[in-house]
Amino acid sequence: MYPFHMPGHKRSSQGVLGKFPDPYSVDITEIEGFDNLNHPEGILKKSMEFAAEVYGADKTYYLINGSSGGILSAVSGVISSNEKIIVGRNCHKSVYHGSILKKSKTIYIYPQILNKLWISGGISEKDVEKVLEENPDAKAVLVVSPTYEGIVSDIQKIAAIVHRKDIPLIVDEAHGAHFSFGGSLFPMSALDCGADIVIQSLHKTLPSFTQTAVLHVKSKYVDIERLEWYLQVYQSSSPSYVLMSGIESCIFEMYKNGDKYFAEFIPKLRALRKRFAEMKCLRILDDSVKGSYGVYDLDQSKIVISCKGLSITGVDLARILREKYNLEMEMCGVNYVVAITTFLDMNEGLDRLKRALLEIDKELYKREEGKNYEVDENIYKYLGQDWKEDDNWWAEKQPEIVTTLADAMERDFQTLEISKSTGYVSAEFVYLYPPGIPIVAPGERINRDISEKICWYKKMGLPVQGMADKKADYLRVFAY
User: Fold this and answer.
1) Both ends of the chain: CA-CA distance in Å?
2) Whole-angstrom Cα distance, residue 189 to residue 235?
3) Could you tell me if 273 and 284 are in contact, meaning their C-beta atoms sit under 8 angstroms apart?
4) Partner of 215 for a Cys bridge, out of 61, 141, 362, 432, CB 3.0 to 4.6 A?
5) What is the C-alpha to C-alpha distance for residues 111 and 123, in angstroms, rounded to an integer?
6) Which of 37, 45, 30 is nearest to 64 (CA)?
7) How far apart are CA 296 and CA 186, in angstroms?
8) Rounded CA gap, 429 and 437, in Å?
9) Structure pTM?
10) Distance between CA atoms of 230 and 197, rounded to whole angstroms?
11) Which residues contact 261 (CB under 8 A, 6 or more apart)?
12) Model pLDDT for residues 184-201, shown as the tens digit of each residue
């Protein structure tokens, strides 16, 4: 089974990090001669200062609770209880958790939708400006860029708009840790575009262990002491030296040799995407989306394959790739799958993905065109029944916000079947994981579109999560 999913090391450092020591030999604690992540004065202080120099940050902090710990710290560090924070609706669930813990008033900016592929686009700077004008008392703005699908918003313009209000911009750049090292093919890091706090997951696209991330600060709008206090709250008091040494090794290796690695990888990636552009039925998210739907740029290393309007779903496509070709994707949506590629991908894996998608596309073309042909049973048996979607039925409708996230989580609730929850207010989250973006959040009224969508996602076999009911049949709700 070949991994087109995180972690970015693809389960083999291939000599990139040399011989990493026996993890037991470096699983140390805060003894004499070592250091304390929550109060660094020695080797960790020097290590993080070096990382800040590499990235061009005022401060860089190692995160051993992943980007989630960094996001929780950032949210808590810039707003006080009951204050407003403006966030992109397509943010990760940890952003919502931070809002709940601070009892904040959360105002959403909705991404635009790429109708042809039916995935979320970017956050428009005009929408940010509009929401800020409507909420002059907001204390911070938080957006995700790049998204799970590699969509990058115009962070430079968004930062300029946010800074006119003298408040900080936080960017969840969890999927863009390679931007700082990837050369001209990849977008500029949000840190270089004026964002005040940037959180990156090293493990997603670089050779680092799962659960490792960094938080960068470059700002006059952030209270560093307050932020550092919350980093202690949301991180373990016994941080793993295995993970911290992995972070340092990764950053040092990318500093030394990142240009070389990407110089070798980028031509392979370009050749792969060029072949995919030849497909007749399946479609690839490419540069044609730039300049529309809030899309400023695109992370080319995310291979997003759309089957919208065809006789298979994203679930079907992921299953075909897994069962016939032994290729595991990062995620699948209703109409697409996402493959994460990194410079540590082997030629064999890239070639297998290319062959698989071209073969599937060929069979789909025969089927979609209704031509007489000899069926390749090895592929055809996976395609399932014809399935067509109704674009109007899937039209996004913003749910009514009745009360705050924190208030809704503390309400007395009743449990109803999801199909019978229309008109009630949700007391919990419902999302697909990955990526963990809420379909409905606590405090939002459930309309018919939402309840039907959740039921349909479940019927398709998508990972519907977030509710107390692990089978995703029932939802906690209250009347309001």
Assistant:
1) 49
2) 25
3) yes
4) 61
5) 5
6) 37
7) 12
8) 9
9) 0.92
10) 14
11) 16, 181, 254, 343
12) 889 999 999 999 999 999
